[in-house]
Specification:
Length: about 675
């Protein structure tokens, strides 16, 4: 085989069998490869390059000409229309669809309110009048909140409040975060300048690489501090009210992120080959599209069970690690698989994301966990299907290497067909396993079992509805204590022996005082958790969210988002979730969620429509959640994925690369899910 004759290469079947045999032997002569025909060079190299590089065998391919060596296919630079064309078509299509449904800017096709809607408006006015007539000491309530005394139980009896339960529940849940309308205290100059500052930093956050290399955390914090200073200047000159910066920084997401980061770090670093590594290996697959599918499936289920921010925080580094392990040239398909399905999957349950938790707390009627899930199953499945198809189509070149088009994509998915490139990937993976066989651990160690137990309790507390901040921080603290105990009593000590140039161990150094007495070596000082693990918490991510809270809170104070919503909804304001207005409503919520963030939008709607029905809130929840996939700033999960990936060296997840895919995928997912939810739902209207 070392000197294959050229005549052997004339028949394709002979060539194929020779390749398989050569792969078994793990060597091929340079002379034989050099004389291969042009149409067989690529096939040879595709199999042999990956296999031999992974096995690091001593072959004769060292002197191989560069032109013959197999290279990863590089994506050609796309033209503007090829890159942004689908997004522009999707935007034009959704605008045309909505104008056709509602009758254009005049809302000529919007029907008049029916008797049920008029009766609901009458009941809402009566309830509002009853609330306003209630003798309530707001100053005492504010003092109670500052002193930590809340309003008590959520379920009040008739004698303890009766019809006022909803009002008290809102104050109990939100506390100082209840939005107060101070827009009338701004002058026109104050509103416009605050809005300009907000949108300037919105652009900076969306495209951080266009400006100074500061990074998103620095940009957000700088924007927040700029807004605080500018609001003080406006107040001093009578152009706006006092800016209560402490009030707009919502602490719960910050506590949650800190606890999740602490938990993630300890789960990953407590034991090599433990729970975290086993979970990472379960997502691994030599075939690209299967690896992407596993990531999407895990992200969807995990987001529904826990919370989307938790899932992306834990698995962003895992996905990047898998891309590095398989020498992936473009990690965007896998990072998008994680981020997009985390947002979509979180719409399944009321605990899937922060806005769902807020909606359930603010809704006038109680919404049970099962009721929420039953209404969301079909819309979320439809949106997930659309998103999966879009990922496979948009990144078909990366996920289906060697495929000639959509037809072959389908054949690979459903018939098990394999291209030569896919076969090469599988061969490389098997060869790597043969060279470096996975060592059998012999079962789960006591530390892995402890990890599983703590993680199970953690997930159970999440599912049972306990405070997510307390649960996440408590879990991190428990893991810290377990890891410190393991490190002190079970982990082997570091070898501090010094060696000479020839590798011989040097005797330990002896120290003497001025009188010639030997100084006994002190007991080895242990390295504390504060010096190791706590330094790995991404405090920059917490600063990013703090800065965004300041920017968004000041922008909401101006009343511009509320005015935009009222103006654009027009005659649909009183029937926003009825056909045809529901599709227009979805588009407005999508725009606001990507400009002012989805949680403030839900707070705004709670104040604008305090007596919305459970079905209304289902539409708001689905729209605000799926809309997070439109742009990078549409969801906190997107920002976390970008930040965590950049932390480990992968800066490919950018706004410029996210939006061309996110816009068409989100619009299709959103409108298909809205159609399903409008047609099939069980929540009362």
């Amino acid at each position: 085989l070392r000197y294959l004759h050229q005549e052997v290469l004339l028949a394709y079947n002979t060539i194929y069998n020779s390749i398989l045999f050569i792969l078994d032997r793990n060597y091929l002569s340079h002379h034989s490869l050099f004389h291969c025909k042009t149409n067989t060079i690529r096939y040879f190299n595709l199999n042999l390059y990956h296999t031999m590089s992974d096995l690091e065998t001593n072959t004769l391919l060292v002197d191989q000409p560069p032109a013959v060596a197999y290279q990863q296919p590089r994506s050609r630079k796309q033209s503007f229309m090829r890159k942004w064309g689908p997004a522009l078509v999707a935007i034009a299509g959704v605008i045309a669809l909505n104008f056709a449904l509602i009758g254009g800017p005049s809302f000529s096709n919007v029907p008049a309110l029916n008797e049920k809607q008029l009766f609901a408006r009458k009941l809402g006015a009566e309830r509002t009048a009853a609330v306003e007539a209630m003798d309530f000491d707001f100053e005492k309530a504010k003092l109670d909140r500052k002193m930590g005394r809340n309003f008590g139980s959520r379920n009040l009896s008739e004698s303890d409040g009766g019809i006022m339960e909803y009002t008290r529940r809102r104050h109990r849940v939100l506390g100082d975060y209840v939005h107060e309308d101070v827009s009338d205290q701004f002058t026109a100059f104050g509103k416009w300048t605050v809005s300009i500052i907000y949108f300037a930093f919105w652009v900076f956050l969306m495209f951080p690489n266009w400006f100074l290399p500061i990074g998103r955390p620095g940009i957000a914090l700088g924007g927040g501090l700029t807004m605080v200073v500018y609001r003080f200047i406006l107040y001093s000159f009578g152009h706006g009210p006092v800016f209560d910066a402490e009030k707009v920084i919502i602490l719960e997401p910050l506590f949650l992120l800190f606890g999740l980061m602490l938990t993630t770090i300890y789960l990953e670093k407590m034991e090599r080959g433990g729970l975290f590594d086993k979970l990472r290996n379960s997502l691994d697959d030599p075939v690209n599209w299967k690896r992407s599918w596993k990531i999407m499936l895990m992200s969807t289920i995990g987001s529904a069970a826990v919370m989307n921010d938790s899932v992306v925080l834990i698995f962003s580094g895992v996905v990047v690690d898998l891309c590095v392990r398989h020498k992936v040239a473009n990690s965007m398909p896998y990072l998008l698989s994680l981020a997009s399905t985390a947002n979509i999957g979180s719409a399944f349950t009321m605990t899937g994301n922060p806005q769902n938790i807020l909606i359930v707390s603010l809704a006038y009627d109680d919404i049970s966990w099962t009721e929420f899930l039953m209404n969301m199953v079909l819309p979320v499945l439809g949106a997930s299907l659309v998103n999966t198809i879009m990922v496979f189509l948009w990144y078909g070149q990366e996920l289906f290497p060697g495929s000639s088009g959509i037809g072959e994509h389908l054949a690979i998915l459903f018939t098990g067909r394999k291209t030569p490139e896919i076969i090469a990937l599988e061969n490389a993976h098997q060869a790597k396993l043969a060279q470096n066989p996975v060592e059998e651990s012999g079962g789960w160690s006591i530390w892995s079992k402890l990890q599983v137990l703590i993680a199970a309790i953690f997930l159970s507390c999440f599912a049972l509805g306990y405070d997510v901040c307390v649960v996440s921080i408590s879990t991190g603290c428990v893991l810290m204590v377990v890891n410190a105990y393991k490190h002190q009593h079970y982990d082997p000590r570091d070898d501090l022996t010094e060696y000479d140039a020839e590798g011989n161990a040097l005797p330990p150094k002896r120290m003497y005082d001025m009188d010639g007495n030997e100084i006994e070596p002190e007991e080895e000082e242990l390295i504390t958790e504060s010096e190791t693990t706590l330094t790995e918490v991404d405090y920059g991510l917490l600063l990013l969210f703090m800065g965004q809270f300041l920017l968004i809170g000041s922008f909401d104070d101006t009343g511009v988002p509320q005015a935009f919503f009222a103006f654009t909804m027009g005659d649909c304001a009183d029937q926003m979730t009825s056909v045809p207005c529901v599709y227009w409503f979805v588009m407005i919520i999508t725009i606001l969620s990507n400009v002012a963030s989805n949680v403030p939008v839900c707070q705004m709607l709670a104040a604008t429509f305090p007596y919305a029905t459970p079905y209304d809130w289902m539409q708001v929840s689905f729209s605000a959640t799926i809309a997070g996939n439109l742009t990078m700033l549409g969801s906190a999960a997107n920002m976390i994925v970008a930040f965590q990936a950049a932390k480990v060296g992968d800066r490919s997840f950018t706004s410029e690369r996210h939006a061309p895919f996110g816009i068409p995928s989100t619009i299709l997912s959103l409108y298909l899910g809205t159609f399903i939810l409008t047609s099939i739902h069980f929540a009362p209207e």
